[in-house]
Amino acid sequence: MARPSSTSAYAFLAFPLGVLIVFTLVPTMLGLGLSLFTWDGVGRASFAGLENFRALARDPRFGPALRNTLVFVVASVPPTVLIGFLVAAAMHARWFIGRSIARTMVFIPTVVSIVAIGFVWRWMLDDGGGLVPAMLRTLGFTDLPNFLQDGSWPMVSIIVVSIWRGIGLAAVLYLAALSNLGEGFDEAAACDGASRAQVLRHITWPLVGPTTVFLLITGAISALQVFDIVWAMTAGVENDATTVLNLYVFREFQQSRLGYASAIAVLIFVLTMLASAPAMTGRRARA
Length: 287
Description:
- By secondary structure, this protein is mainly α.
- The chain has a single domain, classed as MetI-like fold (Orthogonal Bundle).
- The protein contains 13 helices and 2 strands; from the N terminus they run αββαααααααααααα.
- It has a two-stranded antiparallel sheet.
- Helix 1 (6-34) crosses helix 13 (258-286).
- The longest helix is centred in the first third of the chain and has 31 residues, at 62-92.
- The chain is globular.
């Protein structure tokens, strides 16, 4: 059988590469360039150099948005990965019955629209008649905060909902990794007297390390770009407790401050590259 020529290989890759260049690379480069200009989208753009970045450092709204974004990353990604691993380990156990049904139920939130999830949870947490406050009051909890307005509770609520939604994907990926390990390691450790918890901590967890790294990196990248769940659960209300960087960008674009919004997007891009650095350095190390 004749081997395909390099020309046919390039022809095969031309379309996906073209889509990637047109819809990803070109907008990224234009955004990087636009961050150096002042432009309202109508008139002529004027070169501003680094003034947008200097203005960003002086903006009192920038600090809370950056802090909330980083808090969201740190507070949502590791718990999602850890809980997903524990759920997968439980479903992978021999004693677990109904694994297929449980896997489907856990994974369903992942495929449901995040905006729909945000609206449903906003209704459930509403202080004026939401299901969650009503149930807690029925159980005897009377001095309840407003989960969507009081202090840091809105961000806590958003983080909890994000963890709940992300567990399914983490669990499914861990189940795939666990199914490839076999049971020899667990049985050998059990024969040596190790408890189930010790096997999970010292045997299973290190063996699924590549999956853990993948979930942490992709989860951090996704969390740095969070917007939809915050917008849906807060009804688009901007305040220092829940504003994240992408919501900040959205507000600036609404006000036609395109150069300034691009400067914020550049910062998100830099943070995303830093989150991707472990994967890139690990790949070079293995090479």
